[in-house]
Amino acid sequence: MGLKRVDIAESFARFREQWSPKIVGELNGQMVKLVRFQGEFVWHKHDHEDEMFLVIAGRFRMELRDGNLDLEPGQFLIVPRGVEHRPVADAEAQVMLFEPATTLNTGDVRNERTLERLERL
Amino acid sequence: MGLKRVDIAESFARFREQWSPKIVGELNGQMVKLVRFQGEFVWHKHDHEDEMFLVIAGRFRMELRDGNLDLEPGQFLIVPRGVEHRPVADAEAQVMLFEPATTLNTGDVRNERTLERLERL
């Protein structure tokens, strides 16, 4: 059996770092990642990549230049390429991401939060 | 605000048909779809497309030629291109799919269950 069933809660239990997406799947050149959010991230955008955020546990606010969107478990948001955004979580949120394999976490910004290589769970 | 927050449970409440995926999002040429499974589908494969199945509610069994995998809420499976599979659900399951925009529900098989066009929710 080459195929692997992934349990999202079990996968989250395997790491504690925040703002450090872990790769849990790959398909059609896209990555499935799990990330823990808490606090404020940096404003950024991705020039060539759309990004999907699906809340698994907790909640967070996606700040956008023209308003904010609150996201709860079972809700998702697709941020199209070119749209500036900043995720902010008052308490820790567990989020699943879908985005191309090439997506850098901080998009067009490079700073101390930029991760060039992501761990695979 | 051009961006749309999608609530998965609310979206499922908007349709009852089984085996009829509804499009709820699109990113990077990939579609996010919701589908209700019950009973046995047809054996098929997708020659050029990987397909992801994430269980939202209920459970189902993915039958594969070399064994089966049971999937529960919060678990997902990626079926790579070329791999024959058949989803089977004893009771209704609610499943989120990620796959390219071009993916046909019955893959390399065309029969009465094939859907050429999918509805957008």
Account of the 3D structure:
Chain A is mainly beta. The first copy, chain A, contains one helix and eight strands; from the N terminus they run E-H-E-E-E-E-E-E-E. In chain A, strands 2, 3, 4, 5, 6, 7 and 8 form a seven-stranded antiparallel β-sheet that branches. Chain A is globular. The two termini of chain A are 19 Å apart. At the A-B interface, strand 1, strand 2, strand 4, strand 6 and strand 7 of A face strand 1, strand 2, strand 4, strand 6 and strand 7 of B. Strand 1 (5-7) of chain A pairs antiparallel with strand 7 of chain B, so a sheet runs across the interface.
What are the defining features of this structure?
homodimer, 121 residues, mainly beta, seven-stranded antiparallel beta sheet, 48% strand
The helix-and-strand class of chain A reads mainly beta
* E-strand count of chain A: 8
**Mean pLDDT value of chain A:** 93
Per DSSP, the total helix count of chain A is 1
Sketch the topology of chain A as an H/E string, one letter per element: EHEEEEEEE
Unreliable spans of chain A are none
Given the C-alpha coordinates, what overall shape of chain A results? globular
> What's the alpha carbon Rg of chain A, rounded to whole Å?
14 Å
Let me know the largest β-sheet of chain A: 7 strands, antiparallel
Helix content of chain A: under 10%
Q: Largest inter-chain interface?
A: A-B, 37 and 37 residues
State the distance separating the first and last CA atoms of chain A. Answer: 19 Å
